[in-house]
Amino acid sequence: MSSFSPLLFACLDVCVVKAIRLVQLSPLLLPHPFLTLWGGGLTRAGLLALLALTSPGGGLPGMSSFEGLQSFGVLCFHFPVYTTLLWALGMPTEQELWGWHSWERVLQGYLVTAVAWLYWSRYVSSLLLSGGRYISSLLTRAVSEGPKEGPKEGPKEGPKEGPKEDTSASLKRLMGYMRPYVGRIVSVLFLVTLSSYGEMAIPHYTGRVADWITNEDAPDAFTEAIVFMTLMTAASAVLEFVGDLIYNVTMSLVHTSVQGAVFQAVLKQEIAFFDATKTGELVSRVTTDTNDMSEALSEKLSLVMWYTARFGFLLYFMVIQSWKMTLLTCMGLPIIWFIPELTGDFHKAIAAKVQESLAKANQVATETFSCMKTVRSFANEDGETERYRRRLEDTYALNKKESLAYAASTWANSMTTMALKVCILYYGGTLVTRGDVSSGDLVSFVLYELQFASAVEAVMHYYPAVKKAIGASEKIFEYLERKPQIPPDGCLAPGNLEGRIQFKNVAFSYSGTTNESNLVLKDVSLEIKPGRVTALVGLNRSGKSTCVKLLERFYQPQAGEILLDGKPLQDYKDQYLHDKIAVVSQDCVLFARSVRENIKYGCEDASDEDMHAAARLASAHEFIMELSSGYDTDAGEKGGQVSGGQKQRIAIARALIRRPKILILDNATSDLDAENEYQVHQELLNQANDYSVLLISNKMNVVEKADHIVVLSDGIIKEEGSHEELMQEGGLYADLVKKAECGFHRKEEETNDTH
Ligand SMILES: Nc1ncnc2c1ncn2[C@@H]1O[C@H](COP(=O)(O)OP(=O)(O)OP(=O)(O)O)[C@@H](O)[C@H]1O
């Protein structure tokens, strides 16, 4: 910290001013007061700048910044500029020319400089900064959009962590959603303007009534004023009501459409996106974030709108009443905000400490209660009480400070507001005495000023909240604009599908890299022939389910290709593909709807006959009929109302109702007992002439019935052939079968032992 304190600096400044005053009295400069005024200002600025920048300790803090230099400018030149303006307007300047170095003027100069500094550093610069940010964002966008023939941007890597407060971009997108309601929004703005104008009636006509009381020259003036005031105020209230109603209904519509669009956009994303994004985050985007945004828009933006309109009218009427008093009000406002802000900051800091101290006390209590047995066994109840009491004493000491800070902050608030009002009244009174304004004008002005301060305060309070909410909506829009990172589906939907699937040298990793260590499938080539049952077996985590996920187009292989009837999978329509390839996996999920709705899921047009047929094929019809309400029984959350095996059979029926060409059973009957599993498989495999079946199962007695068996190990096809062929080969498959048999015998022995 520089040893040159601001106080010493002010003393030096006063010395400089007094020295210039002596110079002004010299016979050479006496006839040229304007020269001394401007020359003095320049000399004062030069000397002060020199002192500030060269003072020991690296100069006066803050003085080398833009705000510092600007404050110098205001301090040294506001008076020369003001006097020159008076002279240019033909007004008397004697008092200013010869009295600018008086104590009163010097102090006034410091006050003006402080106000200018406050305005600049707290309010104007932040406005300019956001304006600058907007311009720079426009420029950046213009540059990045660049020449049209430039390289196209690659697919985006998920929602990027862009600049947090790119409010303008989010606002533009939001405006896009408001476009259909532009008529309503224009009418709301019109109503806001009219209603705010109507609100000016009370202060205006109160002033007129005050004039009538003092003069009593126009007998009708009083009644006229009261009638106009009542009519305008009532009209303003009605307009405000209608405006609010239209605005809130419109914002609800905007909210609904944004929320629906976000939900739809999220559903369109590729499965890898859902793997990488937590469900909680997605739900929060769709619900909490859109709600917060819409709340900020319907509540806070509406307040900003109303108060801005009021602010405009109040300023206009205040300037009309007296521009001098308006100037005084505008000068006083930053002071009445700044002082409570300072005390408020102190109060907030203490309040945070109180919270912290309370949390510590609570921690002692929680710890003691949760370890009560230990406390009792050491007979340390008094020790713990003492510990808790010490914590509470800390909190009490902080509470005392907080009360003091709160009282000081409230006192500062009311004192500064009162001081401004007294100043305005005093100054207004002088103007009334001089005959510059009528007493009614002063009354109107004071009433305007009361509303003006709160309007400015409200705009300043709510505007950042609106900006923040709009900025926070950026994430929502990132989801809305995100393109799924999987090639778009094609348009093939042939009426006649054979159902032949070929994997050709497929390599795949979940991370998207082709790094050998990350590859789950390294080089997989296999064929699922139409009308036949193909089994895919292998150790755990060998990549069997991954093959299924690729078939469902949840992910895209990094190398190789997957063909359906000789055509790449991505050439088919997604809807068609999911109709033709039905997958039932071990962790199949039912929705909290009726069994009927679950079986007909995505296939709502299917008839009840189709549903019964599918359920019979899945060996599910009989147990469904035994449920309390048959097909109308609620399956419960995630199918919690039915057993695991029943859930799997309903899921198989759900797959079969689409009459698929390829049926994939990925451990789909794992929750069934041996007898039921056998029955389900018999039913399904008997129909295999209608569809191709890909069977993934750890149960080798099920697998051995397949026409063709493919053995996958560590992402590579190790063996393939019929059960007999593979057993003869004596490789991995034979090993798996032996192990399974061993396990089965051990289980059997254990069961016999227990008997
Ligand atoms: N969504 C995913 N993201 C990242 N890695 C995954 C994902 N799903 C599976 N894996 C990994 O891929 C590998 C193969 O898993 P996969 O489920 O295909 O094997 P599996 O042969 O079907 O195993 P299991 O018989 O145990 O079901 C495993 O190492 C697994 O951890």
Main traits of this protein?
Rossmann fold, 755 residues, 66% helix, ABC transporter transmembrane region fold, binds adenosine-5'-triphosphate, 10 strands, 6-stranded mixed sheet, 4-stranded antiparallel sheet, 3 domains, single chain, 26 helices, alpha/beta
Helix content: 55-70%
Biggest sheet overview: 6 strands, mixed
Number of strands: 10
Number of domains: 3
CATH superfamily of the largest domain: P-loop containing nucleotide triphosphate hydrolases
Gyration radius, rounded: 41 Å
Q: What percent of residues are in strands?
A: 5-15%
Return the average pLDDT rounded to an integer.
Answer: 80
- CATH architecture term of the largest domain: 3-Layer(aba) Sandwich
- End-to-end Cα distance: 90 Å
Helical stretch tally: 26
Which molecules are bound besides the chains? adenosine-5'-triphosphate
Provide the CATH top-level class of the largest domain.
Alpha Beta
How does the overall form come out from the CA principal axes? Answer: elongated
Walk me through this protein's architecture:
With 755 residues, the protein is of the alpha/beta class. The chain has 3 domains: 6-128, no CATH class; 164-320 and 459-483, Up-down Bundle (ABC transporter transmembrane region fold), CATH 1.20.1560.10; 501-754, Rossmann fold, CATH 3.40.50. The protein is built from 26 helices and 10 strands. The strands form 2 sheets. The chain has a 6-stranded mixed beta sheet, sandwiched between helices. Strand 4 and strand 5 form a beta hairpin. The longest helix has 54 residues, at 381-434. The chain is elongated and about 125 Å long. The termini are far apart. Adenosine-5'-triphosphate is lined by residues 275, 510, 520, 538, 540-546. The chain crosses the membrane at residues 35-54, 66-89, 109-129, 181-205, 225-247. Residues 144-167 are annotated as: Disordered.
